[in-house]
Design a protein that fits this description.
Two copies of one chain form a homodimer.
Chain A lengths: L1 H10 L1 E3 L3 E3 L7 E2 L1 H14 L7 E5 L4 H11 L3 E4 L10 E8 L4 E8 L8 E9 L3 H13 L2 E11 L4 H7 L5 E9 L6 E2 L2
Parallel strand pairs in A: 4-5, 4-8, 8-9, 9-10
Antiparallel strand pairs in A: 1-2, 6-7, 10-11
Helix pairs in contact in A: 2-3
């Protein structure tokens, strides 16, 4: 996806430890027009998915997910990192974030993830794949089917894709694939 | 805004302690089409604001903010509740959440809130007004101007509007105003 590749090369920055900072246009300041383009590209790539619900994780997944949900006319659910006191029955899973070096829980209400759902999961990054695995676990608990997982950026060298394939995800799409950040230089896959 | 009023009466639920639960269509599961309608109504109400940036708070403000930013072709910044390890120079303020009975910090990078900004702040709820006050403080630190604050739902009886007016906010719009939740019944203002 050329607009995204160009933008990453222009505004992305590398930090030590394999971190790609995209807070100018994706996960702190957001470019809504780019988010719309991202959503359109997801539609193209998941044209035959049969999804009836978009699922994401707060907070950075919400913008692309709501754009996609708007264009596809589908409800969007974001998994929360803390259980609100007002949530009734819920599903919960535990995630290890390698980037942030901590564990966190992921919570979704039983009301909004059920065995009726064919889930297209959308997130900003595919890195080590642990957030995706958390969604696999929540969907398994709910009896929901995952029909695909779409990521704006995949850090290929952190090998999350393999984990998700091993967990049974058959359709994974990433709109930009980072081959390496060695020497703090961004190398994107053609 | 009729579509929103109807939806609150249909899908909103009251919990003890003045809580209005709208997690079926706003802040857990989200209805993207309603979010687009909300954004259009904000455009109408802030037609002359001269905003050049939309600011919101993670996570529930992101969906209406990104829709509004998309339609207005403006960048959207969401304030974070934790400082990411990768954030450079930042502004920080402390918020007291009455609903959640705890304090939290609100953080924004200095790169994305500056004295060039004319900020339209968007959030899901206006309750006691403390989140809005936090944004006032961050904008003051940045030298940014706040040209308006727009909320999807205002709980009038929690009197946050007065706090924001006293803090100098001249243009506040709420698309649905809840007069009371007494007896766990939703009473909306005509």
């Amino acid at each position: 996806m050329k607009a995204l590749y160009d933008r990453i090369m222009q505004d992305g920055r590398c930090l030590d430890g394999g971190i790609l900072k995209v807070d100018r246009f994706i996960n702190h300041q957001m470019d809504p027009y780019l988010m719309k383009q991202v959503a359109v590209e997801f539609i193209r790539r998941f044209a035959d998915s049969g999804a009836n619900k978009i699922v994401t994780i707060e907070a950075s997944g919400i913008a692309p997910a709501i754009m996609l949900g708007y264009l596809l006319e589908l409800p969007v659910v974001f998994a929360k990192k803390k259980k609100p006191s007002t949530m009734g029955e819920f599903l919960v899973t535990q995630i290890r974030s390698f980037t942030k070096q901590r564990e966190y829980t992921l919570v979704v209400s039983r009301d909004y993830l059920t065995s009726e759902d064919k889930v297209l999961f959308i997130d900003d990054f595919l890195a080590y794949g642990n957030a995706g695995l958390g969604i696999v676990d929540l969907c398994r608990q709910a009896g929901a089917e995952i029909v695909g997982m779409g990521f704006i950026i995949e850090k290929e060298f952190q090998q999350g894709r393999k984990l998700l394939i091993d967990a049974g995800i058959r359709h994974i799409e990433s709109l930009a694939i980072v081959e390496s950040l060695e020497g703090n230089k961004i190398k994107l896959k053609d």
